[in-house]
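job 3f2a | input accepted
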Amino acid sequence: MLSLSTALRSEICDSGAEIIREILSYGVQAVELEYRVTESMLKEILPFVKKRDILVHSIHNIMPLPDGLSRETANGEF
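job 3f2a | predicted structure (78 res):
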């Protein structure tokens, strides 16, 4: 199974729904949720998961991004 990471756009996009729609537009139906996904982005992603439009294949590190950390300063080595 092929999956793409939300890292594809999470650094430059504030919308979880927009990221998922882009991944789906490539014909990919599985995703890795990575550490820059915020709680609000996750809330936009969950309806796609619940409708089974996309499968969460893996979760990278801490997710969603903890309060107080910005996506710009976060890294995969919390």
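job 3f2a | The chain has one domain: 4-59.
job 3f2a | closed
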